Amino acid sequence: MTDPRPAASERPATGDLLESPVIGDTPTPRRIPGLPLLVATVVATLALGTIGVLRASGSDDRGGSATTSTTVVTPAPAATPPAVDVRRMHNALHDIDARCRTADSGKARAELEGDADTVTAFARRYPDASFRVDDETGTTLSLLLVARQSLRDCAPTAAARVDRALPPEYRDQHSAAPS
C-alpha cells in the first residue's frame, strides 16, 4: 500500500506547527484548554479591584457633587482581648444557643437577657477586637451579628439590645428606632 501524501520534499514547510493527517487541511496551532476563562477571570478581578480602590480613595467624586455609597467598610480589628474575657463571651454564645431551645420558661428568658448583656459588655470593652472561637477567627462585629441572629426568634428584646450595640449601618431597619 502506498502513502497518498506527497513525499516529504514536495510538502510545504509548516514551521513548528503539527502537520494535519488529512490532505488539504491546514495545520492548527495548539491551544491551552481553559486559557480564555483564566484570562477573563484575571481581567475581571483586576477591574473590580481597581474600582474598589478608586471608591475607597474617594476619587470618584463627580465635579464636587455629593455622592452616596452603600458600601460598608469595617474597621480592621485593633485589639486581642484577654483569654478569660473571650471565654466568658464564648460561653454566653453557647448558652444562648442552648437556652433558646428552652426559652418557654421565664428563667431561660431572664438568662438570655444576661447572656445578651455579656455579649454587649464585651463589645463595648473591645469594639475592634479579633479573637479565636471554636477554631475560627471572630471579630466584635461578627460576634454581635451572630448573637443578634441567635436571639431574634427566642428573645426579641435581647436581640434588640444587641442590635443597638451594632454600628448603625448593621442595625435592623425595624429596630433602629429609639426605644
Overview of the molecule:
The structure is a single chain. The protein is built from five helices and two strands. The protein has 179 residues and is mainly alpha-helical. It is elongated and about 95 Å long. The N and C termini lie far apart (97 Å). Mean pLDDT is 74; it is low at 59-69.
Topology readout:
Elements: H1 35-57, H2 83-100, H3 106-125, E1 130-133, E2 136-139, H4 140-151, H5 156-165
Antiparallel strand pairs: 1-2
The tally of beta strands, per DSSP, is 2
DSSP helix fraction: 40-55%
Q: Structural class, please? A: mainly alpha
Termini gap = 97 Å
Q: How do the helices and strands follow one another from N- to C-terminus?
A: HHHEEHH
Give the percentage of residues in beta strands.
Answer: under 5%
Alpha carbon gyration radius: 31 Å
Low-confidence stretches: 59-69
Overall mean pLDDT: 74
Strand order of the largest sheet: 1-2
Helical region count? 5
- Taken from the alpha-carbon principal axes, the silhouette is elongated
Q: For the report, how would you describe the main beta sheet?
A: 2 strands, antiparallel
Q: Describe the oligomeric state of these chains in a short phrase.
A: single chain
